[in-house]
Amino acid sequence: MTGAIKNTGTWASTRNACKLCAPLGASIVFKGIKGCVPMIHGSQGCATYIRRYMISHYKEPVDIASSNFSEETTIFGGRANFSTGVDNLVAQYQPEVIGIASACLSETIGEDIHGFIREYRAANRNKPLPEFVHASTPSYQGSHMDGFHHAVTATVSALARKGKTGGHINIFPGFISPEDIRHLKDILSDFGIPYVLFPDYSDTLDNPHWKEYQLIPEGGTSVGELKLTGSAKVSIELGYVFQQGRYKDSLKGNQKFQTAAEWLRQAYDIPFYKGGLPIGLKETDRFFKVLEDISGKPTPERHLRERGRLIDAYVDGHKYHFGKRAVVFGEEDLVIGIVSFLEEIGIETVLVASGGASGKLKAAIDTVTGGKRKHMLVMNEMDFEGINEITDELKPDIFIGNSKGYYISRRMGKPLVRVGFPIHDRFGGQRVQHIGYKGTQQLFDRITNALIEYKQEHSSVGYKYI
Amino acid sequence: MSSFLIERKRQIFRSGADQHEMLCSRPSVAGSVSQRACVFCGSRVVLYPIADALHLIHGPIGCAAYTWDIRGALSSGPEIHRLSFSTDLREKDIVFGGESKLYLSLVELIVRYQPKAAFVYSTCIVGVIGDDLEAVCKRVSKEKGLSVIPVQAPGFQGTKKDGYKVACEALATLVGTGDREVPEISINILGDFNIAGELWLLLDYYKRMGIYVNATITGDGRVDDVRSAHKASLNVVQCSGSMMYLAKIMKEEYGVPFMKVSYFGLEDMSDALYEVAKFFKSAALMSKAKEIVREEFGRLMPVLKEYREKLEGKKAAVYVGGSFKAISLIKALRLIGVQTVVVGSQTGTTEDYELIQNLCDEGTIIVDDSNPIELSAFVKETGADIFIGGVKERPIAYKLGLGFCDHNHERKEALAGYEGMINFAKEIYATAMSPVWQFTR
Ligand code: SF4
Ligand code: SF4
């Protein structure tokens, strides 16, 4: 490959994207609904690609149907394909919910999917029908994270029902790993807080082995639970950015986009807490404080001890970290949490990059780090070639991000600690932990060991104690 | 378990029981979870291994992101093909047109990466918003002095197979533009993509025979080789699906004859060498071919025999991209004692399916463009032990408690050639005999 070129300049093209397309995000959310089969309204290829991409990360069967646009569909519209598609899905899967994400093509030709759903319901009045959820997810308006958040809001706004305020809370954790979701559920249970967590793909995308093939994998947030989101006493939403900024070259921007919690407050007057992903001590403390307030109980002993062990580890390992330089990349809300954590252990983030385009990344990073790092490059709308071209100058010691950045870390001869999505070149992407004291501990150990391993391998002495 | 879709009936066949002719090349049924991809995908996978060309995808980001370096198609030199370039269209471009963004992208990328040619793929929405891909390509071609080739591949215009044809048409525009001198005994290898370095194995065999390999299309491919491809005396075409069309064009336009071969399994691999020797009517080549085959057999047979003894009685389900490959696999599996009980492909042809019928035992299920529901039911019905397919089928196999061998384009093990047969046997053996199944069945 051509040698490093200093100037990244502005590029018209995207070179090795550090983001994915919107229906992928929506499909992950729909996999978090119990009994749901996602259907992408558009051509065949999109669904197949998205399935393959998810399968390589989660190592689970991922069934996503497509309405399979053909040439005629593109000219005359997708109404017929939509209803045949739904017919066929119902016949084969008997889903409780069909989650529809519109691909670029169907959005471009201006399909009225809400209209199609209405018509379908009317035409099949006598049959038991699944619930329909529709997220409008053209990728020219946003990345997979926009698709993700749109699908969360679309699902909640379609299914939430008003009711007498219950003792339960809603929690919308954003795009985290199945293992993270399981940990989050443990935390809430330990606090004794009844909750509806959405989307819950902790089982559907990380199932145990089956004795019988399951057409629709077990698990997920049920329709019944989703109805209850409308009567929760409070919502918690994790994330600062939520893709609410302006996506470059979009005509309307996403500023008006409401997150699920915002929608619930507007529609049903449910208050909400908003905070970052609980990665690192400070952000996790903030999260636990919210849980303490809500439950009126102190943090359970088990988690206090995890917190104590984490601080203990920070101390034990601090010399390996101080002054090390990191390049961090991935989804905006994830990298914000990671950078916040790295600050706590003395690792300097020299570049934080995301393919997300909210334009809000810089401000959010400044908030969590107190704006201390004057030289930290914070870049929205970045792609991997962009990162590749400036890393030489930045002299990083470590890369933290998804596995698509591997080629850069390989070229630089520096370790990559794999977090987030996708992790296509390692096992256990679905079980990587990021959040809470426990998840931070895992991250901490992995980062520390990557640094130690590098040192050990590059030392002329074969140290057995490090 | 729910029923199969009625519309799919004529794409499923039970050997010895059903009478109808296989209905293939049909678009997938709406609402099914097809294992198939789109036209764009077909063209992209075929052209992708051309390593010194720029591959720019004109469309929204997904189509490019999901095809970034997905295949293990290796290059011995430049690696521009392993980068993913997209115009990453935005709402503004959808409404006002994406031509200027395409133009700027092409120019900047050509300057930055210095490719030998550029392929520009159109995707679904480009087919709808009406960008004049052709005009932009022409303009850049003129300004930058290199071939900029439009690949008109909106996904909705058909299946992956249609994409192969589009790719062949794009290649055909390059063929004939070079004038390299080539010896009489020379071939082009068409339709091998150098997955895990397979092409290099084949090159070695042909070289040992004394044959000059002119162009490899597209594995470890180079633009200049394609330009002079018409200079070879013969096109040796593997996997009838993807490259036949180019072979036909080259026959019509340049009088280069072609032959179909397969490199999977010992029998087919050896035939590939014999047939080429026969074509050149050369006793010397034939005796060289025989020598190679003898040597390789001598080396392989004892090893394969050991595998056969251990694998005898195992049953396999095969679901791969092209039906031609399925045929080779059935034979290769037989060689190591494994019986094929389900055969399917995404893009089979009626003739291939007939061949498969003749090759298979009665009761074998033959299927075109299947989906997870069907596949899981077939596997159960037939009691298969091993599944051979692509990444999308792997988790299905594993969840069903079946061994799995990746025989698609993302594999990292060479499975073609003699060496490949050993790798194949090894992999089948490893997956069939692993102790993990005791916990799942
Ligand atoms: S179907 Fe169309 S939009 Fe989808 S991946 Fe293929 S070309 Fe891209
Ligand atoms: S057309 Fe849109 S939805 Fe389909 S793969 Fe491309 S970016 Fe994704």
Automatic annotation (TrEMBL), chain A:
Q: Does the keyword Repeat apply?
A: no
Q: Which InterPro entries match?
A: ChlB/BchB/BchZ (IPR050152), Nase/OxRdtase_comp1 (IPR000510), Nase_comp1_CS (IPR000318)
UniProtKB keywords? Nitrogen fixation
Q: Report the GO molecular function annotations.
A: nitrogenase activity
Q: Does the keyword Membrane apply?
A: no
Q: Name all Nitrogenase/oxidoreductase component domain ranges.
A: 21-451
Provide the family line. Answer: Belongs to the NifD/NifK/NifE/NifN family.
Protein name (Swiss-Prot/TrEMBL): Nitrogenase/oxidoreductase component 1 domain-containing protein
Organism encoding this protein: Paraflavisolibacter caeni
From TrEMBL, chain B:
One Pfam annotation reads Oxidored_nitro
Kindly give the Gene3D superfamilies that the UniProt entry links to this protein: Nitrogenase MoFe cofactor biosynthesis protein NifE, C-terminal, Nitrogenase molybdenum iron protein domain
Q: Which segments constitute the Nitrogenase/oxidoreductase component domain?
A: 38-432
Query: Sorted alphabetically, which keywords does the UniProt record give?
Result: Nitrogen fixation
Alphabetical GO biological process terms: protein-containing complex assembly
Signal peptide (from-to): none
Q: Which pathway does the database say it acts in?
A: Cofactor biosynthesis; Fe-Mo cofactor biosynthesis
Name any one GO molecular function: nitrogenase activity
Which family does the UniProt entry place this protein in? Belongs to the NifD/NifK/NifE/NifN family.
The record's function comment reads: This protein may play a role in the biosynthesis of the prosthetic group of nitrogenase (FeMo cofactor).
What the entry lists under PANTHER family is as follows: NITROGENASE IRON-MOLYBDENUM COFACTOR BIOSYNTHESIS PROTEIN NIFE
Protein name per its UniProtKB record: Nitrogenase iron-molybdenum cofactor biosynthesis protein NifE
Native organism is Paraflavisolibacter caeni
